[in-house]
Each structure stands twice: as C-alpha cells, then as structure tokens.
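Hi everyone, sorry if this is the wrong subforum. Our group has a chain we'd like a structural model of before ordering constructs, and none of us has done structure prediction before. Sequence below.
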Amino acid sequence: CLWGEQKVSFVDLGCGNGLLVFLLNSEGHKGRGLDLRRRKIWSTFPEDIQACLLEQAIVPSLDTSFPGVQWILGNHSDELTPWIPVFACLSGSSTQYWVLPCCPFTFTAKYQRKNGSVSVFRDYLDHVTQLGKIAGFQVDEDRMRIPSTKRICLVGTPDQTCQDYETRKKTVLDYVSSQMKNFVPREKVERVRNCTQIGSDIIQAIVKCVVKVCLETENLMQKDFQEDGGSNTSRTWNAGGELTLHTVITHLQADKSIDLSRLKSECGGLQTLLKNNHSIFHVEKGRVKLRVPSSAKPMYAAAKIKRRPCWFHENHPDGCLLQDADCTWIHT
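Answer:
Right subforum, don't worry. Here is the predicted structure as tokens:
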C-alpha cells in the first residue's frame, strides 16, 4: 500500500463521480475533490462526504497551488494530468502526487506523439514522467488492479538528491512559462459530440453518398416469397459491396456538396455517424457495407418495432428485400 497505516491529506483534481474521495475519506484520510461539474451521484454520499466534493473550475496557471496538502491526485484527470506534477511542486517542498493518465494532453492542447516506435499512450506516459522529473520528483510507475485499459499510474515523490526547493520551483516556473499559452477549461455543460447534432442535411447527404458507392458493386441476393394466393415468387436485391472507410472518405471528399469539416469536432467522426445509422450500415474493423434487412425481432420483451419508415423501402433502387409483414420497419 502506498500510504500504509499513515493518514494523509489530499486533493483530488477532476474528481468526477467522487468515488475515490469517498473511499479515501472513509478510510480515515482527509481530503476533498474538485470538479468542474457536480455529479448526481454526489447527493447519494453521506453529508460529510458531500461537503468534501466541490463544484469548482480549476484553471491551471503558475499561481495555482494547494499548500498544506500532502498529496495531489489526478484520476483520469485529462487536461489537468500534465499539470499535476507542477501543482505538486508549487504547493510545497514535501507535497507528493499520484496520477492515473488517460486522455493525452499537454499544458494547452491535445498531446501529439513524439516517439513513433511506441504507442501513443506509452509515449504520453513517458512525457508525463519527464514532466515530473523536471519538477524535481522521483517518478515511479505502477499498474493498478482496476478494470480499465488505462491503469498505469505515476507516483511522484520529491527527489532529495537533486536540488533545493527554491531551485525546483524556479525550474518549473521557467519551463511552464516557455510552454504555456492561454488555457481554457471545459465548458460546464458538455456539448454532445456523437455525430447526432451536426444537422440532418449533412447526415442524409453522407448516408446517400455511401449507399450509392456501395451499390456500384453488384452483389445480388434473391428472396423467395409466398403470395397471399399461395403462389411462389421471388425478389432480387442488390446488397452492394464492402468498402474501407478510407475509400468512403475519398468519395465523400470528391463530392463538393458535402461539408466534411462539420465532422472534425465530433467523437469518432465518419465511423460513428455510420454506426449511428445501424439500420442501414454494418460497420466493423474499418469496413462498411449495407446491412441486409432482417425479419428477426429484438430479443427483449418490451421491444418496439415498426416505429420508423424503412429506409431501404423508400430509398434503395430495389426497395426493401422483405415484404411489409416481415420487415421490422414501416413500409408506406
């Protein structure tokens, strides 16, 4: 255990759901958590824990410090992660830190990989480790036993062999001053960025373009039916080809009527947009194809079917592969 039987004081920056603050205070440690946005789960904690969870924006600067605190914690603290060693150095000569990096950021922007021979995450861990050493810390690495792919943490303790505290502070101040520009914290209310709010016009244009490109490859399927009168009939339906996302992007870029810049600020970009339209496309391992209409009903009891028009019935050159009675969407 990092702290053993010792009871310490701490501050958890970007505490999120507040669970870590709750657990540590419950074990006898004294600390508080700060986060830009209050979470609903905070109200479920005991009142003494709620008092330790504060809705507060942390704007990193060379004036930001937490004097009197023994440990500064950053649990998946995103934009604050590279600042944790800086805050620890500026807070006191004996202040230590623990940080669990996740999304890679520099002091002012997204982190760009510097070492192409390793993964982005490994390169970022090395970057944060180096920041800790610049701030005069001995940095140790450990692997947390938690259900997460990002579970490598860094622990910084003041390096007593390198330099006196005032020299450490000056080194940090000079380094950050040379790196830092204007930092803007996250918006208190985060904007939805899952490609659902970019406008129906651009979504429809992209969907129709991708379908058109898929259908340039002929891949005919035949479906047999029995008419109401008992006679048998069949329907031919073009399932189209399977494309790489790179090929799709090339075709979209060639269509000057489609403004792809509106996708740049969205999480997941084109792939997310296509997956959102799962009734039309099947997207897997960087490839996309048309989803073959299926008469299979959802497995759960309260499933609702025939809530929206069938896209293939209205837009596919061959209509829907299924008859109205079999399709889970509406044929009008």
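For your construct planning: The mean pLDDT is 89. The two ends are 65 Å apart (CA to CA).
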